[in-house]
Amino acid sequence: MLKILQHFWSFVLHPSDRKLIAYHSDTYSKVFSTLFLFKVLILAIILPLQYLVQYLDPVFTKKSDTDEQAIFYMISAVVFAPLIEEFIFRYFLKYKRYYRFVISHNTYRKNYRWLLYSSVFLYGLAHLFNFENANLLFYFLGVLLVSSNLVDGLVFSFIRVRLGFVYSWAFYGIWNLFIFSLIGTIILLKNPVTKIHNDNIDLEINVSQFRDTTQALFFVRENSDSLFNLNVRQYPLSQVIDSLYGPNRYQVDDEYIDIEMRSAKGYSKDSLMNLLKEDFTIEPNIP
């Protein structure tokens, strides 16, 4: 394991497009497992930094208002997205014969370091577009937000070059499967996000990883600034906020949510917003 990590570090410092020669049948599986564990360790280190960024300058994402059923989402995330991204960002990291019409092999190798680093940088930069922020501080802290993607770029590039394109595609897909399984487990463990039962209100809020529009429901009974009944299933939180408080008044780090709320006397919208802010990232939208 240590030798594999040393070889990976040597690749990061002194990149080359040399293929790994396997002397043992289990070499590739050892590379896979070692780098997978390495990425898990890096994820554990980077996540606190990303939470720090969220504290300093909240980041926002937007959920689709269409179906995101689990089976289709997983096929896309595990098969098609890795294939497309590997082709765009890493296919060219191995010299091909037809490249000679554009660049000689010698020139390619002399400039390989910058080719690889540019690939990793562009891969990380592309993931900044997953967020909706547009302020200066966000872009200043952006390197922390995509730090895990930069590490991904180095690891995937190493596997693509040393083992081959199919192996980096497979590794990327397996990693995505691991991440989405981890997210799904966390969501199951933290549900319900909010559960309150008292004389003023009965409230339960759950989050979902995917959306099924055949189950979608949005019902609200209100009077001025008071809510008496709110029943939401399979809606993005941003749409719920826009419906209750007016469009574009708030920025939301989005989730698919289910809300069941009843209040015989009426519950103020401001009080509900305060409850939502305890568990979700919601900030006033500054024009």
Automatic annotation (TrEMBL):
<feature type="transmembrane region" description="Helical">
    <location>
        <begin position="137"/>
        <end position="159"/>
    </location>
</feature>
<feature type="transmembrane region" description="Helical">
    <location>
        <begin position="31"/>
        <end position="51"/>
    </location>
</feature>
<keyword id="KW-0645">Protease</keyword>
<keyword id="KW-0482">Metalloprotease</keyword>
<feature type="transmembrane region" description="Helical">
    <location>
        <begin position="166"/>
        <end position="189"/>
    </location>
</feature>
<protein>
    <submittedName>
        <fullName>CPBP family intramembrane metalloprotease</fullName>
    </submittedName>
</protein>
<feature type="transmembrane region" description="Helical">
    <location>
        <begin position="114"/>
        <end position="131"/>
    </location>
</feature>
<keyword id="KW-0812">Transmembrane</keyword>
<keyword id="KW-1133">Transmembrane helix</keyword>
<keyword id="KW-0472">Membrane</keyword>
<dbReference type="Pfam" id="PF02517">
    <property type="entry name" value="Rce1-like"/>
</dbReference>
<keyword id="KW-0378">Hydrolase</keyword>
<feature type="domain" description="CAAX prenyl protease 2/Lysostaphin resistance protein A-like">
    <location>
        <begin position="70"/>
        <end position="178"/>
    </location>
</feature>
<dbReference type="GO" id="GO:0008237">
    <property type="term" value="F:metallopeptidase activity"/>
</dbReference>
<dbReference type="InterPro" id="IPR003675">
    <property type="entry name" value="Rce1/LyrA-like_dom"/>
</dbReference>
<feature type="transmembrane region" description="Helical">
    <location>
        <begin position="71"/>
        <end position="93"/>
    </location>
</feature>
